[in-house]
Amino acid sequence: MADQLLQQAQDIFEGQIDFEGQKLAELFSTIILTITAILALALGFYQQTIWVTLWVGLGGTAATFFVVVPPWPIYNENPEKWLRANSAMSGAGIEVDGKRIN
């Protein structure tokens, strides 16, 4: 029972995403932060106050964090298919302290 709970917790907190998901997360963060920076600068300039600029920038950063950091399912749509380990090749040619490892 404890192993099942540990496995569920690991699945929740591990956050597996694939390589395409990493590209997508980077694209989202770049777009959101760029739009936020332009909006923050424009609003701060229009209202002539740095506080508006800082708060809009902080809000955009928080929104980016919410969009990019959690392992949303959209980030794991193309998982890698790893090759199985070949038992005949494991340890081939490895020597430790003069002993061959099988």
Mean pLDDT: 86
Report on the biggest sheet: 2 strands, antiparallel
> Hey, roughly how much beta strand do the residues contain?
under 5%
Helical residue percent band:
55-70%
Structural class by sheet pairing and helices: mainly alpha
H-E string = HHHEE
Count of helical stretches: 3
Radius of gyration: 23 Å
Low-confidence stretches: none
Q: What general outline do the C-alpha atoms trace?
A: elongated
Q: What's the arrangement of strands in the largest beta sheet?
A: 1-2
Number of strands: 2
Explain this structure.
The protein is mainly α and 102 residues long. It has 3 helices and 2 strands. The longest helix has 29 residues, at 19-47. The protein has a two-stranded antiparallel ribbon with strand order 1-2. Helices cover 60% and strands 4% of the residues. The chain is elongated, with a radius of gyration of 23 Å. Helix 2 runs antiparallel to helix 3. Strand 1 (95-96) and strand 2 (99-100) form a beta hairpin. The protein has helices at residues 2-14, 19-47, 50-68, and strands at residues 95-96, 99-100.
Give a short summary of the structure:
The protein is built from 3 helices and 2 strands.
